[in-house]
Amino acid sequence: MWRSAGRRGTEIPFRLDGVVRIDDTPVHRAIREALANCLVNTDFYLPRGVVIKKDRDSIIMKMFNLIGIGEHAGSGVPDIYSVWEHQGWIAPEVTEEYSPDRTILKLVFMENENVKKSAIKIGDKKSAITEERLKRILQYMDEKTEYRADELAEGIGLKSSRTRQLLNMLVEREVVEVLGKNKGRKYRKRE
């Protein structure tokens, strides 16, 4: 097992099978794809070559060649965009320049604030839904009655597994108490 230094002091595990790297991350694969595209699509008959610039938070690859942007849309390029989106990073940037002819791919390793804000909104919405479901359970329960999770699930219209998760939250908040263990477990609203 080998480890390579990652961003901000983290270590990223990988191992070699001969000369093939195994168990690397989607980010590693995306960067390798971008580098391979640079090398494969470069016109080596021109006097210029490939330039790869590594900044603290980005990599810029300049491909000095005569290809158009459409030829970059190979099977690996959508994967690069997908990986960056999944990481919540700023989307890859592709630009074309002329004289000299080149295509520039910029991969930024920084959070996309717009994605972060929408994730917070989605999280807030999920939190509001969860709170509403917790209230619904408490409204359904009578203080003097003991309930099985599947009875409550049926009564409020949720799956048993989700109802158990919500009941555990109510137990942690000390609003509901647990009676019994395992299959005989029941829940009662605290007085």
Overview of the structural elements:
The chain has 191 residues and is an alpha+beta fold. 40% of the residues lie in helices and 24% in strands. It has 5 helices and 9 strands, in the order E-E-E-H-E-E-H-E-E-H-H-H-E-E. It has helices spanning 26-41, 76-87, 113-140, 149-156, 160-172, and strands at residues 2-5, 11-17, 20-22, 50-54, 58-64, 93-97, 102-108, 176-179, 186-189. A 4-stranded antiparallel beta sheet has the order 4-5-7-6, covered by helices on one side. Strand 6 and strand 7 (102-108) form a beta hairpin. The longest helix is centred in the middle third of the chain and has 28 residues, at 113-140. It is elongated. It starts with a strand and ends with a strand. 14% of the residues are buried.
Write the layout of secondary structure elements.
Blueprint: E1 2-5, E2 11-17, E3 20-22, H1 26-41, E4 50-54, E5 58-64, H2 76-87, E6 93-97, E7 102-108, H3 113-140, H4 149-156, H5 160-172, E8 176-179, E9 186-189
Antiparallel strand pairs: 1-2, 2-3, 4-5, 5-7, 6-7, 8-9
Q: Taking all residues together, what is the mean pLDDT?
A: 76
Largest sheet: 4 strands, antiparallel
Shape: elongated
Task: Briefly note the structural class of the backbone.
Answer: alpha+beta
| Total beta strands | 9
What's the alpha carbon Rg, rounded to whole Å?
27 Å
| Low-pLDDT ranges | 1-9, 65-74
User: Total number of helical segments?
Assistant: 5
Order of strands across the main sheet: 4-5-7-6
Helicity range = 40-55%
Element-by-element helix/strand order: EEEHEEHEEHHHEE
- Terminal Cα span: 56 Å
Our estimate of the beta-strand percent is: 15-25%
